[in-house]
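Lab manual, section 2.4: Encoding a predicted structure.

Procedure: take the sequence of the chain (115 residues), apply the prediction step described in section 2.3, and record the output as structure tokens. A sample record is shown.
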Amino acid sequence: IVIKCFAISLFTYFTFEILVNLSIQFHHSSLKVHTLLDKLWMILFVPPSMHRIHHSIKKEEYNSNYGVIFSLWDKLIGTFLTGKDETKIEIGLNYCRDFKKLGFYHLLVMPFKIS
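Recorded output:
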């Protein structure tokens, strides 16, 4: 409906989807980017080192770096956070720390549990 309302061409739509998905794959990767390139990339875009902070179990870290393609949005709304030692970031969700409860059945019913 949105595509029709704003008369977005199929080319524009697919170009956007490709760029978003490539960006998401890149910043969710475990690639280590040279420090200089990382800092230059971070001026405008989201590198893996910046987005990785967002997946931390610490509230002040997971409430940061929401950007998908551009880091500019985080800078504008005050959620931009860098300078964390990546080797010390514990990734995950606090309520999912028990690996015995992360089997197929538990993951299947997890969205329907309130606690």
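Check your result against the sample. The mean pLDDT is 89.
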